[in-house]
Each structure stands twice: as C-alpha cells, then as structure tokens.
Amino acid sequence: MAVHKIVLFYAFTPVPDPLAVKLWQTALAQQWDLTGRVIVSEHGINATLGGTVENLKRYVRTTRQYPGFADMDVKWSQGTGVDFPRLSVKVRPELVSFGAPDELTVDSTGVVGGGVHLSPQEVDDLVAARGEEVVFFDGRNAFEAEIGRFKGAIVPDVSTTHDFVAELDSGKYDDLKGRPVVTYCTGGVRCEVLSSLMASRGFGEVYQLDGGIVRYGETFGSQGLWEGSLYVFDQRMHVEFDDQTRSLGRCVLCQATTANYENCAAPSCKTLRVVCAGCVPGAAVQVCASCEPVSV
Ligand SMILES: [Zn+2]
Ligand SMILES: [Zn+2]
C-alpha cells in the first residue's frame, strides 16, 4: 500500500518570473497526483503538498533544480492521502499575506534584515542564559494559539496575518524593543517576514525559531518550552508531539480541555472555535461572538 506524506517547505529567493514557476509547479504537481497549496511570488515559494512518498520525493528533487530553491529546508509529516481536497498553485504579491509586499527585501541569501535564526536547542540555550528577559512572540493568528503556545508567549490580537502591521504599529509592544524577542510560527515562513517587520520597527534583538513549532516539537516533544497542541492547516486540524501532550484548548461552551476546532454555525463565517466533542452538537447551531446579533 502506498505511504502518504505531507511536505512543507518555503524558500525566500528572487523569482524574476513567478508565472513561469507557477506553470512549472502546476505541471509537476499534476504529473505526480499531489494536492495542497503552492504560492509563488517574486520573493520565492511557499508550499504544503500531500501525496505518496515516492511522488513527493520526485517532486521535491525536481523543485530543487530551480537555483534559488536548491537548499530549501523540507519538513515531512504523516499524511492520509486525503489531507487536501485539491491542488491550488497561485501567483501572489506575497508568500504570506502581511499586506506589506514593498517592505520585504529578498536576495539570494533570503530575507534581508530578518531575525537571527535559532535552532530549537539554541532557543532553549537563550532562555537558559537570559531567563525571564526573553519574550516569545506568537507569529500566528490568535485562534491558533488557543490550543498551544510557548510558555509565557505574547499572543498578538490578530485574526489574519494581515493584522500584524497595524498591531506592531499600535505601540502595544514597544516595551519589548529592548528585550530579546523570539518569534515563532508553524513552520517558520511567517516569522521570516514578521521578524523583519519587527526589526525595521526598532525591535533591537529579534530571533526567529528555525523550522518553526514543527521542528521544535519534533526535537523536544512536550519536554521543552512548548506547551499543548499545534494547529495545522490541513484536515488533521491539530497535532500533538507526544502522548504526554496536554492541550491548552478550552471548549468555549463548557471549558473542558480539548484541541478540537469547529466552524461557526453561520454559513459565511470562517471563524474557528475550540469546542469539545461533547459540545459539538450544540456548537453546530451556535454562531461565534462576532456573528451574534448585537443586543441593545
Ligand atoms: Zn464542551
Ligand atoms: Zn461567526
């Protein structure tokens, strides 16, 4: 039986002709029956794809032939074969939608002016050396952090990545500008941009977790500074790094511990809420706070 996997990778490198790369990537993914999402921009490539392990290996090997993609860090995880409903390959102004494409400078070494990359071990070493001074800064949407985050992390009030620029410009986090700040996200791609936006706004000592939470969890499981479950953007919805993981998620209806997300009952609303298995029937007919009619 075929073994299914998911690959996650990105590369920040100048891509002079994103449309040509899109067509090439579409042909490769179709040829090898891959599904998932690929975004190409003038700044590089960002992809999450599922398929059989043989086909994914062929695809990754071929993708590495593009000069700027040769050294990409590719993360592998277990797949089911039905992790993504379809294939989507798109050209976008940004690899991740911060709404600030003109703020980002990319050269053959990657993002210019981004945070210093730290391996999971180096993050732990930094915290061991500097203690409470170190701040973890969550680079994801706030809902993702509800089921897991780094110990003591600051979780910005963002519902999409687009909200980060306003959030940083609000002055809310200016007291962190003199402290070591470690940004982290799922696989590292959002921190490449976020850490550069922070550095250019005067955050003086910015680090980014290399390989993201995925790599940290693979390294330390639940024995390190990471607590709880990891939200993922495929049909698994969340992953736990070992069987001792205690999710930080609390059901919005009954406060029970859970890592389960359910959609808001309003058909047009994409809000995900943490809801335990027992409350799923009730949640299915209930809308989220922002869809509730305002009472006067
Ligand atoms: Zn519940
Ligand atoms: Zn809603």
From TrEMBL:
GO terms for biological process: tRNA modification. It catalyses: uridine(34) in tRNA + AH2 + O2 = 5-hydroxyuridine(34) in tRNA + A + H2O. Its EC number is 1.14.-.-. PROSITE patterns: RHODANESE_3. The keyword Signal does not apply. Coiled coil: none annotated. It is an enzyme of class 1 (oxidoreductase). Residues 130-225 form the Rhodanese domain. It comes from the Bacteria. Gene3D superfamilies: 3.30.70.100, Rhodanese-like domain. Keywords: Oxidoreductase, tRNA processing. The keyword Oxidoreductase applies. One of its GO terms (molecular function) is oxidoreductase activity, acting on paired donors, with incorporation or reduction of molecular oxygen. InterPro entries: Rhodanese-like_dom (IPR001763), Rhodanese-like_dom_sf (IPR036873), Rhodanese_C (IPR022111), TrhO (IPR020936), TRHO_N (IPR040503). PANTHER family: THIOSULFATE SULFURTRANSFERASE/RHODANESE-LIKE DOMAIN-CONTAINING PROTEIN 2, THIOSULFATE SULFURTRANSFERASE_RHODANESE-LIKE DOMAIN-CONTAINING PROTEIN 2. Belongs to the TrhO family. NCBIfam families: PRK00142.1-2. Catalyzes oxygen-dependent 5-hydroxyuridine (ho5U) modification at position 34 in tRNAs. HAMAP family: TrhO (MF_00469). This is tRNA uridine(34) hydroxylase. It comes from Sanguibacter gelidistatuariae.
